[in-house]
Amino acid sequence: MSAVDRSRRRFLTIALGAGGALLVGFRDAAAAQFPEDFPTELLGDDLTALGPFVRIERDNRIVIGAPGCEVGQGVMTSLPMLIAEELDVDWRQVRVLQLPYGYADDGAAGSDRYGPQGGDRLGRVDEDREDLRRAGATARALLVAAAAQEWRLDAATLRTEAGQVVAPDGRRLTYAALARSAAAQATPGAPVPLKDPARYAIIGRPTRIADARELVTGRARYGSDAYRAGALIAVVLRCPYRDGSLDGHDDTEARKVPGVREIVVLEPPPAGAPWDGHQAAGVAVLADTTWAALQGRARLGVTWKPGPWQDESSAALTAAAHAALDSGEGALELRRDGDLERARRQALRLIEARYEMPFLAHAVDEPPGALVELKQDRALLIASLENPDEASAIVSRLTGLPRSAVEIRLTRAGGSYGRRLRNDFVAEAVLIAKAAGKPVKLVWTREDDLRHDGYRPLGVHQLAATLDRRARVTGWSHRCAATPRNDGDPRLADRPAWAGCLEPDSFPAGLVEHFEKDFPTGSGRSAARRLPGRRAQLQRVRRAVLHRRDRGGDAAGCGQAAPGPARRAARTAVRRRRRSGVRHRAHGARAADLRDAAGLGRAAQ
Question: Is residue 143 within 8 Å of residue 94, measured between CB atoms?
Fold first, then answer.
């Protein structure tokens, strides 16, 4: 094969695998790692173990690797479709396999062998499109070159369809028949032309989900299905207090449960230590079966030291948020468009309501869990992940192994909703496996997940809309006192406290001239530092406007409207508008939108 383009860290490499299968995948290399005349064959024929993007079997089956984490967003289908389209195969011939996490250590800074593999990869289809299409197009070019050599024809006169190369006189050769000779062809020196979108046969057309049969027949493999011979099942009794610690424990009764093998104490993360994924103190029970582990955990005698947050509560935090909205002290202005006070003075009607939004658990369909096997020179992790890059870094930090020695096998995940972005369950499994000296499968129950999730913020939202004589919305105020998402997580330390609660530029910013936002930094801020797991900094945001048919959560609020004069005034305003018989114009608000904004209709979820 010819020299590869070393200006790219990731480059295509072609090889012949076991049984004569054509393998096409990406390798990583620094530009200075190999001399220019280094034969690519000597990079090794380990693409089969790495999970190549394309594998053409001898029976003409096409195996395509899916590089993203499948958490329900469809990357197991959408990304292989890009490759299959350029390879010019029938989708019914294709078998999709989940690629493992691919980390390449080039001696300097590591890189992702298959590109970014996080759960957000569906949103990166445009970014991935060129690389993935190039893998398919290059494989197709090699197969066409092999057919041209076989028939002694000009490659430009040949075409491909449904996994075959077709000659002008109608002769056909399957990709499988050409695989061996295709692997011996010189890699194209110039980029291979990609298909004209007008010729697409897969992209943009109804396409069956790659693993639909496995899903409906129950054969799909999830992280909770992971198995390793000799692995013990672990469940953890976790400290219910933020920054709490273990005061004492008695495991005498737990050890009497048949099948219980080990009891492991998890110390709390050191105060001020860098994030390593570990979240809380706990006691882990290891057993032969899940049932035995759960029974052993139920018989543990444990006392906790609550730490500095023992008097905190959701009720106190909610009350502090209401107080901050009432006082408005120490407000920091975030944005101002127009003159909201003038809009209020000129308005015929004002509709106003408050909504309480509690802490929200992600409640994923498949609770977290991980299987970890540690050896002296390598580590294995099998889990449903959304952020495998961080998981790899956590395993490396906690074991001292280089990241290139950490093998991560990805499975389909039963949802994520952002929950699996935090790899706390991976850190726990690694710590338990280290202490036990055995492979460990950590199991979280549904109750564990709901009690120890990284909750979405609590907040109290006060909304107000001003209407003119034609029942058009002339101003929209949205004030919010909420807990920040960035507390206790150094990964989010550079994000402002209001991030994730109410973004300055989200709906309905820019839709009307009267718009302003501010953020309180006064006494209400300290009063709201209340709930275990969340140090709350109160936020106050004024927003303007409701746009026709747009009923997003930011505009309509969530929860239930607080009773009182504001609600009664809102109801009266809607009744008056109905009696007036005024019809809304295209740029005005619908009655249903106004009722939702006032808390009279169904609140957005």
Answer: no
pLDDT tens per residue, range 348-383 = 999 999 999 999 999 999 999 999 999 999 999 999
Strand 301-305 versus strand 10-16 pairing type: unpaired
Q: What is the pTM of this model?
A: 0.77
| Positions of E strands within 29-182 | 54-56, 62-66, 94-98, 103-104, 111-112, 159-161, 164-166, 172-174
Q: What is the mean pLDDT of residues 397-425?
A: 92
Give the span between the Cα atoms of 52 and 386, in whole angstroms: 21
Structure tokens at 53: 């993007």
What's the pLDDT tens digit per position in 159-178? 999 999 999 999 999 998 99
SS3 of residue 295 by DSSP: helix
Rounded mean pLDDT of 133-162? 92
Burial 98-124 (b: 16+ CB within 10 A, else e): bbbbbbbeeeeebbbbbbebbbbbbee
SS3 sequence, 513-563?
CCEEEEEECCHHHHHCCCECCECCCCCCCCCCCCCCCCCCHHHHCCCCECC
Query: Who contacts 158 (Cβ-Cβ below 8 Å, separation ≥6)?
Result: 144, 147, 148, 151, 165, 166, 167, 168
- 404-416 core/surface letters (b: 16 or more CB in 10 A; e: else): ebbbbbbbbbbbb
Taking phi over 0 as left and psi of -120 to 50 as alpha, with beta for the rest, 93 belongs to alpha
What is the CB neighbour count within 10 angstroms for residue 439?
18
